[in-house]
Amino acid sequence: MKLSEIIDLKTYPIDQPQSSQYKEIVSSIKGGLDEDGCAVLSSFLSDSGLDALVSEADARKSKAYYAESKLCNIYLAEGNPNKADDHPQNIFMERSNGFITADLLDEGTYAHTLYYWRPLRDFLAACLGKKKLHIYADPVSNMIINLCKPQQTFNWHFDTNEFTITFLLKGADSGGHFEYVPGLRNRDDECFDEVKKVLNGDRSRVKRLDLREGDLQFFLGRYSLHQVTNNTGSSDRLLLIQSFTEMPGVVGNPSRVKDLYGKTTTAHKEKVNDRSRGDQLLD
Ligand SMILES: O=C(O)CCC(=O)C(=O)O
Ligand SMILES: [Fe+2]
Predict the structure, then answer these.
(1) To pair with 140 at 20 to 30 A between CA atoms, which of 126, 163, 270, 275?
(2) Residue 249 class from Cβ within 10 Å (0-12 exposed, 13-18 middle, 19+ buried)?
(3) What CATH architecture does domain 3-270 belong to?
(4) CB distance 256 to 283 below 8 Å
Protein backbone atom coordinates (compact mmCIF):
# COMPACT_ATOMS: atom_id res chain seq x y z
CA MET A 1 0.00 0.00 0.00
CA LYS A 2 1.46 3.36 -1.02
CA LEU A 3 1.04 6.42 1.16
CA SER A 4 0.10 8.38 -1.97
CA GLU A 5 -3.05 6.22 -1.98
CA ILE A 6 -4.04 7.53 1.45
CA ILE A 7 -2.86 11.15 1.55
CA ASP A 8 -3.17 13.89 -1.07
CA LEU A 9 0.61 14.21 -1.36
CA LYS A 10 0.38 16.57 -4.34
CA THR A 11 -1.30 19.25 -2.25
CA TYR A 12 0.50 18.27 0.97
CA PRO A 13 4.02 16.97 0.10
CA ILE A 14 4.83 16.11 3.71
CA ASP A 15 7.46 13.63 2.56
CA GLN A 16 9.50 16.45 0.95
CA PRO A 17 10.84 18.60 3.79
CA GLN A 18 13.08 20.59 1.44
CA SER A 19 10.22 21.80 -0.75
CA SER A 20 8.86 25.32 -0.42
CA GLN A 21 5.31 23.93 -0.22
CA TYR A 22 6.32 21.91 2.86
CA LYS A 23 7.73 24.98 4.55
CA GLU A 24 4.59 26.99 3.81
CA ILE A 25 2.37 24.26 5.25
CA VAL A 26 4.46 24.01 8.40
CA SER A 27 4.37 27.74 8.96
CA SER A 28 0.60 27.96 8.45
CA ILE A 29 0.07 25.19 11.01
CA LYS A 30 2.44 26.80 13.49
CA GLY A 31 0.40 29.99 13.19
CA GLY A 32 -2.85 28.16 13.99
CA LEU A 33 -1.35 26.25 16.90
CA ASP A 34 0.19 29.37 18.41
CA GLU A 35 -3.05 31.23 18.09
CA ASP A 36 -5.44 28.70 19.56
CA GLY A 37 -3.93 25.23 19.89
CA CYS A 38 -5.67 23.93 16.80
CA ALA A 39 -5.05 23.85 13.02
CA VAL A 40 -6.67 22.08 10.06
CA LEU A 41 -5.45 20.84 6.66
CA SER A 42 -8.53 20.50 4.47
CA SER A 43 -8.97 17.36 2.37
CA PHE A 44 -5.66 15.93 3.56
CA LEU A 45 -6.83 12.38 2.84
CA SER A 46 -7.24 11.37 -0.78
CA ASP A 47 -10.71 10.19 -1.83
CA SER A 48 -9.48 6.60 -2.01
CA GLY A 49 -7.71 6.93 1.36
CA LEU A 50 -10.85 8.26 2.99
CA ASP A 51 -12.94 5.43 1.49
CA ALA A 52 -10.45 2.80 2.70
CA LEU A 53 -10.29 4.23 6.23
CA VAL A 54 -14.09 4.44 6.44
CA SER A 55 -14.40 0.80 5.30
CA GLU A 56 -11.90 -0.29 7.97
CA ALA A 57 -13.83 1.59 10.61
CA ASP A 58 -17.21 0.27 9.44
CA ALA A 59 -15.89 -3.30 9.54
CA ARG A 60 -14.88 -2.84 13.21
CA LYS A 61 -17.84 -0.84 14.51
CA SER A 62 -19.48 -3.83 16.11
CA LYS A 63 -16.35 -4.32 18.25
CA ALA A 64 -16.31 -0.76 19.58
CA TYR A 65 -16.19 -0.56 23.37
CA TYR A 66 -18.91 1.27 25.26
CA ALA A 67 -18.28 1.84 28.97
CA GLU A 68 -21.01 1.01 31.44
CA SER A 69 -20.46 4.06 33.59
CA LYS A 70 -21.78 7.05 31.74
CA LEU A 71 -21.14 9.95 34.09
CA CYS A 72 -17.65 11.43 33.86
CA ASN A 73 -15.79 14.48 35.05
CA ILE A 74 -13.48 16.40 32.71
CA TYR A 75 -10.43 14.47 33.96
CA LEU A 76 -12.20 11.21 33.09
CA ALA A 77 -11.30 10.16 36.61
CA GLU A 78 -12.84 9.66 40.05
CA GLY A 79 -14.36 12.60 41.92
CA ASN A 80 -12.53 14.20 44.86
CA PRO A 81 -14.35 13.86 48.22
CA ASN A 82 -12.06 16.49 49.73
CA LYS A 83 -13.34 19.16 47.37
CA ALA A 84 -16.68 20.99 47.24
CA ASP A 85 -19.54 19.49 45.23
CA ASP A 86 -19.21 22.20 42.60
CA HIS A 87 -15.46 21.72 42.13
CA PRO A 88 -14.56 20.63 38.54
CA GLN A 89 -13.41 17.23 39.83
CA ASN A 90 -16.91 16.66 41.22
CA ILE A 91 -18.94 17.83 38.23
CA PHE A 92 -20.13 14.83 36.24
CA MET A 93 -21.54 14.80 32.70
CA GLU A 94 -22.88 12.14 30.40
CA ARG A 95 -20.46 10.34 28.08
CA SER A 96 -22.01 7.83 25.71
CA ASN A 97 -19.56 7.48 22.79
CA GLY A 98 -17.61 4.31 22.06
CA PHE A 99 -14.11 3.57 20.80
CA ILE A 100 -12.56 1.21 18.27
CA THR A 101 -9.24 0.59 20.05
CA ALA A 102 -5.69 0.36 18.70
CA ASP A 103 -5.48 -3.43 18.99
CA LEU A 104 -8.29 -3.69 16.41
CA LEU A 105 -6.38 -1.56 13.89
CA ASP A 106 -3.57 -3.99 13.36
CA GLU A 107 -0.57 -3.99 11.04
CA GLY A 108 -1.64 -3.97 7.43
CA THR A 109 -4.57 -1.63 7.98
CA TYR A 110 -4.49 1.79 6.33
CA ALA A 111 -4.82 3.44 9.72
CA HIS A 112 -1.77 1.59 11.07
CA THR A 113 0.31 2.33 7.96
CA LEU A 114 -0.47 6.01 8.23
CA TYR A 115 0.27 6.18 11.97
CA TYR A 116 3.67 4.53 11.71
CA TRP A 117 4.76 6.36 8.56
CA ARG A 118 7.92 8.18 9.61
CA PRO A 119 7.56 11.29 7.37
CA LEU A 120 4.19 12.01 9.02
CA ARG A 121 5.79 12.03 12.48
CA ASP A 122 8.69 14.19 11.30
CA PHE A 123 6.25 16.60 9.70
CA LEU A 124 4.23 16.83 12.93
CA ALA A 125 7.42 17.44 14.90
CA ALA A 126 8.35 20.28 12.52
CA CYS A 127 4.89 21.82 12.93
CA LEU A 128 5.22 21.68 16.71
CA GLY A 129 8.80 22.92 16.74
CA LYS A 130 9.95 19.71 18.46
CA LYS A 131 13.12 17.79 17.62
CA LYS A 132 11.40 14.44 17.62
CA LEU A 133 8.02 12.92 18.32
CA HIS A 134 7.31 9.42 19.54
CA ILE A 135 4.45 7.08 18.93
CA TYR A 136 2.28 7.21 22.08
CA ALA A 137 3.36 3.99 23.83
CA ASP A 138 -0.16 3.07 25.00
CA PRO A 139 -1.02 -0.12 23.10
CA VAL A 140 -4.76 0.29 23.68
CA SER A 141 -5.29 3.95 22.93
CA ASN A 142 -2.44 5.29 20.82
CA MET A 143 -4.60 5.13 17.72
CA ILE A 144 -8.37 4.89 18.11
CA ILE A 145 -11.59 5.66 16.33
CA ASN A 146 -14.17 7.64 18.26
CA LEU A 147 -17.63 6.37 17.37
CA CYS A 148 -20.57 8.67 18.15
CA LYS A 149 -23.80 7.03 17.04
CA PRO A 150 -27.03 9.04 16.86
CA GLN A 151 -27.87 10.51 20.28
CA GLN A 152 -24.35 9.88 21.58
CA THR A 153 -22.05 12.51 23.01
CA PHE A 154 -18.52 12.90 24.42
CA ASN A 155 -18.44 15.19 27.45
CA TRP A 156 -15.98 18.03 28.11
CA HIS A 157 -12.55 16.65 28.96
CA PHE A 158 -8.77 17.05 28.77
CA ASP A 159 -6.61 14.45 27.00
CA THR A 160 -3.74 12.51 28.60
CA ASN A 161 -1.36 13.08 25.73
CA GLU A 162 -0.15 16.51 24.86
CA PHE A 163 -0.64 16.26 21.18
CA THR A 164 -3.12 14.57 18.87
CA ILE A 165 -4.00 14.57 15.21
CA THR A 166 -7.44 13.55 14.08
CA PHE A 167 -9.02 12.68 10.76
CA LEU A 168 -12.77 13.11 10.36
CA LEU A 169 -13.91 9.96 8.54
CA LYS A 170 -17.65 10.49 8.76
CA GLY A 171 -19.39 13.62 10.01
CA ALA A 172 -22.79 13.67 11.75
CA ASP A 173 -25.66 15.01 9.58
CA SER A 174 -26.54 17.26 12.47
CA GLY A 175 -24.92 17.95 15.85
CA GLY A 176 -21.73 16.03 16.67
CA HIS A 177 -19.69 19.26 16.66
CA PHE A 178 -16.17 19.42 18.02
CA GLU A 179 -15.93 22.31 20.48
CA TYR A 180 -12.88 23.44 22.42
CA VAL A 181 -11.54 26.09 24.76
CA PRO A 182 -7.93 26.85 23.78
CA GLY A 183 -5.35 26.78 26.56
CA LEU A 184 -7.87 26.55 29.39
CA ARG A 185 -5.19 25.07 31.66
CA ASN A 186 -1.40 25.00 31.35
CA ARG A 187 1.40 22.76 32.49
CA ASP A 188 1.73 24.56 35.81
CA ASP A 189 -1.86 25.42 36.64
CA GLU A 190 -5.21 23.58 36.50
CA CYS A 191 -6.99 26.98 36.31
CA PHE A 192 -9.98 25.54 38.19
CA ASP A 193 -11.87 28.86 38.29
CA GLU A 194 -11.78 29.30 34.52
CA VAL A 195 -12.63 25.63 34.03
CA LYS A 196 -15.62 25.99 36.33
CA LYS A 197 -16.98 28.90 34.31
CA VAL A 198 -17.06 26.76 31.16
CA LEU A 199 -18.72 23.88 33.00
CA ASN A 200 -21.32 26.33 34.31
CA GLY A 201 -22.23 27.26 30.75
CA ASP A 202 -20.03 30.27 29.97
CA ARG A 203 -19.50 30.07 26.18
CA SER A 204 -17.34 33.19 25.82
CA ARG A 205 -14.10 31.22 25.25
CA VAL A 206 -15.68 28.23 23.46
CA LYS A 207 -14.80 27.66 19.79
CA ARG A 208 -16.50 25.31 17.36
CA LEU A 209 -14.62 23.70 14.49
CA ASP A 210 -16.21 23.13 11.12
CA LEU A 211 -14.48 19.88 10.19
CA ARG A 212 -15.09 18.13 6.86
CA GLU A 213 -14.56 14.50 6.01
CA GLY A 214 -10.92 13.87 5.02
CA ASP A 215 -9.58 16.88 6.96
CA LEU A 216 -6.57 16.56 9.22
CA GLN A 217 -6.88 18.39 12.51
CA PHE A 218 -3.97 19.22 14.85
CA PHE A 219 -4.95 19.58 18.43
CA LEU A 220 -3.28 20.28 21.80
CA GLY A 221 -5.84 18.42 23.91
CA ARG A 222 -3.93 18.28 27.19
CA TYR A 223 -4.43 22.00 27.75
CA SER A 224 -7.57 22.73 25.72
CA LEU A 225 -10.84 21.49 27.19
CA HIS A 226 -12.93 19.89 24.44
CA GLN A 227 -16.16 18.00 23.76
CA VAL A 228 -18.22 16.45 20.98
CA THR A 229 -21.80 17.70 21.16
CA ASN A 230 -24.72 15.31 20.92
CA ASN A 231 -25.05 13.62 17.52
CA THR A 232 -28.57 14.70 16.65
CA GLY A 233 -28.45 13.26 13.12
CA SER A 234 -29.31 9.81 11.87
CA SER A 235 -25.85 8.57 10.87
CA ASP A 236 -22.73 7.60 12.83
CA ARG A 237 -19.89 10.08 13.35
CA LEU A 238 -16.42 8.52 13.00
CA LEU A 239 -13.14 10.19 13.89
CA LEU A 240 -9.68 8.59 13.67
CA ILE A 241 -7.35 9.81 16.42
CA GLN A 242 -3.58 9.35 16.43
CA SER A 243 -1.55 10.45 19.43
CA PHE A 244 2.14 11.30 19.80
CA THR A 245 4.36 12.24 22.71
CA GLU A 246 7.54 14.19 23.18
CA MET A 247 8.88 11.70 25.73
CA PRO A 248 9.16 8.02 24.87
CA GLY A 249 7.33 5.38 26.90
CA VAL A 250 4.21 7.31 27.93
CA VAL A 251 1.14 5.16 28.61
CA GLY A 252 -2.30 6.14 29.91
CA ASN A 253 -3.47 5.98 33.51
CA PRO A 254 -4.56 2.31 33.89
CA SER A 255 -7.92 3.08 35.48
CA ARG A 256 -8.73 5.72 32.88
CA VAL A 257 -7.70 3.38 30.05
CA LYS A 258 -9.79 0.53 31.49
CA ASP A 259 -12.80 2.78 31.93
CA LEU A 260 -12.64 4.38 28.48
CA TYR A 261 -11.43 1.50 26.36
CA GLY A 262 -12.43 -1.59 28.34
CA LYS A 263 -9.00 -3.17 28.67
CA THR A 264 -5.42 -2.71 29.83
CA THR A 265 -2.23 -4.63 29.02
CA THR A 266 0.99 -5.57 30.80
CA ALA A 267 2.40 -2.21 29.61
CA HIS A 268 -0.08 -0.51 31.95
CA LYS A 269 0.80 -2.74 34.90
CA GLU A 270 4.53 -2.16 34.43
CA LYS A 271 4.04 1.56 34.18
CA VAL A 272 1.61 1.98 37.04
CA ASN A 273 4.05 4.03 39.12
CA ASP A 274 6.04 5.39 36.23
CA ARG A 275 3.76 7.00 33.71
CA SER A 276 6.34 9.46 32.35
CA ARG A 277 4.59 12.80 32.27
CA GLY A 278 5.98 16.22 31.55
CA ASP A 279 3.66 17.74 34.13
CA GLN A 280 1.74 17.09 37.37
CA LEU A 281 -1.70 17.82 35.95
CA LEU A 282 -4.73 15.70 36.75
CA ASP A 283 -5.29 13.16 33.99
O1 LIG B 1 -14.18 12.92 18.36
C2 LIG B 1 -13.60 13.99 18.58
O3 LIG B 1 -13.71 14.97 17.81
C4 LIG B 1 -12.72 14.16 19.79
C5 LIG B 1 -12.35 12.86 20.45
C6 LIG B 1 -11.59 13.09 21.70
O7 LIG B 1 -11.54 14.16 22.21
C8 LIG B 1 -10.86 11.98 22.39
O9 LIG B 1 -10.99 10.83 21.98
O10 LIG B 1 -10.14 12.26 23.36
FE1 LIG C 1 -10.10 14.24 23.75
Answers:
(1) 126
(2) middle
(3) Sandwich (2.60)
(4) yes
Which of 228, 253, 257 is the best mutation target for the ligand 1 pocket, counting ligand atoms within 8 Å of the beta carbon and taking the most? 228
How much distance in Å is there from the Cα of 21 to the middle of ligand 2? Answer: 30
- Beta-bridge partner residues of 65: 99
Atom from ligand 1 closest to the CA of residue 148: 1
Separation CA 178–CA 91 (nearest Å)? 20
* Nearest ligand 1 atom, CA 168: 3
Ligand 2 centroid distance, CA of 113 (Å): 22
* pTM as predicted: 0.93
pLDDT in tens, the chain (283 residues): 788 889 999 999 999 999 999 999 999 999 999 888 889 999 999 999 999 999 999 999 999 999 876 789 999 888 999 999 999 999 999 999 999 999 999 999 999 999 999 999 999 999 999 999 999 999 999 999 999 999 999 999 998 887 889 999 999 999 999 999 999 999 899 999 999 999 999 999 999 998 999 999 998 899 999 999 999 999 999 999 999 988 888 888 888 899 899 999 988 887 655 545 667 777 7
